[in-house]
Amino acid sequence: MAKTLSKPTSIFFMLFTIFFFSTYVIADEAPVFSKNLPPSSLGLEQKKLSHLHFYFQEIVRGPKPTAVRVAQANTTNTSPTGFGAVVVIDDPLTLLPENTSKVVGQAQGTYTFASQSESALLMVMNFAFTEGEYNGSTLSLLGRNTVSPSVREMPIVGGSGVFRFARGYAQAKTYTFDNKTGDTVVEYNVYVLHH
Ligand SMILES: *[C@@H]1O[C@H](CO)[C@@H](O)[C@H](O)[C@H]1NC(C)=O
Ligand SMILES: *[C@@H]1O[C@H](CO)[C@@H](O)[C@H](O)[C@H]1NC(C)=O
Ligand SMILES: *[C@@H]1O[C@H](CO)[C@@H](O)[C@H](O)[C@H]1NC(C)=O
Ligand SMILES: *[C@@H]1O[C@H](CO)[C@@H](O)[C@H](O)[C@H]1NC(C)=O
């Protein structure tokens, strides 16, 4: 059922179209690559400071390791610092040091043995939280982890969900290291500014 528009109607549509497109351009609604917004448009008036405290549980041996070495260089095995090895982790984050304690999230990412002169890792990981109001929110850590000092500090470079626009730092302290299995528990204190 084809339908032709009556003359007044098509003139109306023509004028409407011209009007519509001109307002589109004039009203700055045309596709734009970038524009300034008031911070309040994303609810960014006030900053919050959060302190998160949890334990990072890493199991390297056994049937269900949470850390797996996925790559290394030919020279890694003869390097005193393990230079060139890359490990992928999916480590549970728990409220208390015991591995049976409540899980509040996972640390997922990689670390690379990135120094030839000392034990120093490049850490690239996300803390993916699953607890309460933080469920589904993440913090991204990118930093250098020199394993020997008692407290290592690494930057938090961003976040998602409740941690949008996050910036801050994480302090990591080895809680237990089993020198037979290589299993490690690391205490994390994370301080972040976010909105
Ligand atoms: C690494 O080792 C393998 C096997 O031993 C050898 O085939 C390969 O050429 C070596 N690569 C380099 C870059 O030395
Ligand atoms: C938890 O830790 C205990 C002792 O510290 C150990 O025997 C057990 O295998 C660990 N469980 C897991 C799932 O890692
Ligand atoms: C977290 O969110 C997921 C997906 O929305 C849901 O399945 C899960 O039950 C939640 N966990 C907690 C502890 O609220
Ligand atoms: C492992 O740790 C125990 C005590 O914590 C120590 O006596 C032992 O020498 C260590 N072994 C190695 C290989 O470092």
Tell me about this structure.
The protein has one helix at 7-26; strands spanning 48-58, 67-71, 86-94, 103-113, 120-129, 138-146, 151-160, 167-177, 184-194. Residues 1-5 have low confidence and may be disordered. The chain has an eight-stranded antiparallel beta barrel. A hairpin with an 8-residue loop joins strand 3 and strand 4 (103-113). By secondary structure, it is mainly beta. It is built from one helix and nine strands, in the order αβββββββββ. Residues 130, 135-136 line the site of one 2-acetamido-2-deoxy-beta-D-glucopyranose (NAG).
Major beta sheet summary: 8 strands, antiparallel, barrel
Give the integer mean of the pLDDT values: 89
Strand arrangement, major sheet: 1-3-4-5-6-7-8-9
- State the helical fraction: 10-25%
Strand share of the residues?
35-45%
Quickly name the level 1 CATH class.
Mainly Beta
Measured between the Cα atoms of the first and last residue, the distance is: 56 Å
Sketch the topology as an H/E string, one letter per element.
Answer: HEEEEEEEEE
Low-confidence residue ranges: 1-5
Radius of gyration: 26 Å
CATH topology: AOC barrel-like
Tell me the domain tally.
1
Q: What small molecules are bound in this structure? A: 2-acetamido-2-deoxy-beta-D-glucopyranose
CATH superfamily: Allene oxide cyclase-like
> Outline, from the CA principal axes?
globular
Count all strands and give the number.
9
Helical region count?
1
CATH architectural name = Beta Barrel
Structural class: mainly beta
